[in-house]
Amino acid sequence: MKYKVVARTDVGIRKAVNEDSYLAKTTHTSLGNVCMALICDGMGGLQYGEKASQTVVALFDKWFTDVFKETTEVAKDKYNLDLEIERLFLKANRLLVDYGIENNIKLGTTASLLFIIEDKYFTYHVGDTRIYKYDGRLKQITEDHTLVAAKVKNGQLTKEEAQISKEKHILLQCVGVNEILEIHKSYGICSSLDVFLLCCDGLYNRLEHQEVAEFLKNQGKVNENHMQMSIDNLISTVKNRGETDNISAMIVVPGT
């Protein structure tokens, strides 16, 4: 199974620094073709968000290149892969917590990781960056670790009320702020007909659910050049709608 992957990050119309980071890696192993995609959003309003997101990306980049490509033992079953990815998340959390203490600063980042091995996908997630899967229907396969998402889940808010709530950017989980980190995980089967979207809140804040579905509907049928143009146009649309945050998105198509 080959992969088509395109991504773009944009500083946006107001911020001076882009605190988003992303990573996409593919390789061939004894288990088949593998794709790892990661998107991170450094904490808006906190110091050194750029460093936080880049630290997580660099850690996973090094692991994929130096460890995973050398031995696929960690991916032979879900349990081993879970342990390894959790170890990396916790290591990143420890590095950032310690850095914050040593420098008397606060920094943190969200992180959403998609791992595909042939026809199986795995997601690992902290924060409010998102991973969507389109297979004829659009599904958000990560859970937002936000105060309003928790209130919706508990019946305290409707989804419509959550969209306009002043609390919608309050995170309950992110990498680098607290000693304890809870990682949301999901698993499933994918095919060449599916399309994955990884994105930060700077993108989805200005888009309706149906708009995301329409955007992804044909991405699996076109080449990477057209995919890149599509993602660039989508980011331009979001900027034209007044989004002030950094904007980042990545499309992953499992291929054939």
Automatic annotation (TrEMBL):
SMART domains: PP2C_SIG, PP2Cc. InterPro entries: PPM-type-like_dom_sf, PPM-type_phosphatase-like_dom. It holds the Pfam family PP2C_2. CDD domains: PP2Cc. Residues 5-254 form the PPM-type phosphatase domain. This is Protein phosphatase. The lineage of its organism: Bacteria, Bacillati, Bacillota, Clostridia, Eubacteriales.
